[in-house]
Structure formats: structure tokens, C-alpha cells
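Hi everyone, sorry if this is the wrong subforum. Our group has a chain we'd like a structural model of before ordering constructs, and none of us has done structure prediction before. Sequence below.
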Amino acid sequence: MTMTELYSIRDVARIFALQESRLRYWMQTGFVGPTVRKGGRFFYTFVDLVSVKAAKDLLAAGLSMQKVRANLEALRAALPGDASPAARLRICSDGETIVAIADDVAFEPPTRQIVMAFNLPALGGQVAEVLAMPARGEPAAAAAPAPAAGDAVPAPVEDDPTEANEGLSAYRCFVDACAAEDAGDALRAEHLYRQALEQQPSLAAALTNLGNLLYRRGDVAGARALYEQAVEHEPDQAEARYNLGNLLEDLGETELAIAELRRVTLAAPEFPDAHYNLGLMLARVGGFAQAARHLERYLELDGGSEWAERARGYLAQLAA
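Answer:
Right subforum, don't worry. Here is the predicted structure as C-alpha cells:
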């Protein structure tokens, strides 16, 4: 195992006994997720695995999502970016404070009660052991697809209750709504998204996906309201801002649309479609140099897509 080894969402689901749909939900809501995009797919690094394990352990200890999110932010600040399975580091938290320390240094949290602790060599061993075993009961299948631009959660999978998600009824409705939408049953999907939001009105991913359904059937005002609610609850949720920006452009509110897509590219710099659309919008208002930069960035991220040739054509026009 090397520091540069990458792990698919299926690998991570096996390592931590989590449902793939839960990992996708965490990723799309900006809670915790993969940081590497390669060949149109997302992959986890070992450092990302550390964050996933910390999130799972803290949630199992009964901490709220808000507290876990704060702990993860502290972990990212405390953990060296090049941490590897061989690093003699121990991750500890009392639910309020999280630290990454050498194994031979004593840790005494402020409350004297450790609710989560593990060391990196042990986690590395767990990763190697799980991935070395055959996936029992799993038919041969292609790897999980990358998230589709504009959807808050990609292709849904079956999601039976586990220790990590048991009792999350809003989440359960959300996952079922994704499955219904994937099956082409928009009416059932809308009903389930609304059920999820009745139980958890701040569920930004559900607001985003419901907004998508309304927009597709022509309810632009309803979609805009939902996207705006989503970004109010989750300001860094890229999908909601991306969709809101495109909607605003369709309404002729180009300056507002550009502002939204700028926020997307800052919060999610590896979101290729945001760079593509922002480049086109900037070109329309005369921002040719900035437009070229975003189109070039799009090609760096997604140079093999069907839209890449169009991006190259636009760049050629800008350079003429």
C-alpha cells in the first residue's frame, strides 16, 4: 500500500461496513467525501479514509451532525496532508476537541472522556485486510458511476438500515426518492422528497433534487425557491448553487448567475461543468480572459468528454 493509493466508494463501503448510498449522501452534502477526481470518477485517499472513520465513530457515539462536522474540520487542520498507514499517529476526540498526536504522547481531552480514538497503522491494517478478502455475496458489477452534474446524489443503491443510519427516517425517504427518480417515477420521487423535508426541512440535498424535478416540469419559480433554501441551509453545497446559477441564466439574470457559479468554482474547484458554464457566461458579457481560464480549467478536469471539443472551439474563438 502506498500513500498514493486510491479507493473507490465501493472499497470504502466494504472497509467501514457502510452503505454506498450513505457515503454518496455524505459526499454530496459536503459532510465528508473523496478528494480525488480521476477519469470522471471520485476516489478516496488514505487521509479521506481517516475522516470517514472519524465521522462514523463520532456519529455512533451519539454526537450531532453539527458537532461531528466541527470535529472533522478540526481533524483536517490537525492531520498532516501526507499521512499514511505507516504514520505513528493517533486520532483522539472527546466530542468537542480532536487532535492528531504521536502514539507515545499521552492525550487527555478536556472532559477526560474519549469518545473516539484510533491509530493510523491499525486503520491501515484494517484497510489492507478488508480489501484482500473477496466481496461475499456481491455479483460482478461495474464501479459506481460518478455523480451526474446537477444531481445532489448519483445513482441510488439499496440501503438497508445499519448501525450508521438506523432510524434516520428523513434520510430513508431521501434514498427511496432517489431510487424512484432513477426508475423514472417522478411523482413518487417528488412525494418522497417532500416527506423527507417534512421531517427535516434543512435537508439541502432533498431541496436540490426536488428543485430539479420542479424545474424539469416548468415550475421555474418553485425550483428557484428550493435551490435558494438549499444554499441557505448548506452554503457550500455545490449542486444547489450550480443549478441556481443555470436557472438564473435562463431567466436572463446573467450577473446573478455568474456570481453563483463563481461561488461554486471557489467552493468546489473540481466541478467541471461549473467551469464550463461560467466560461460561456463570462464570454457573453465580454469577460474573455476570465472565460478562457474557466474553459481551460474545464478541459483539465474533463478533457475527454463530449463537451470538450465544444470547449476547445470556444477557446479558439476567444483567441481569434
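For your construct planning: Confidence is low (pLDDT under 50) at residues 135-168. The beta strands are 36-38, 41-43, 89-93, 98-102, 116-119.
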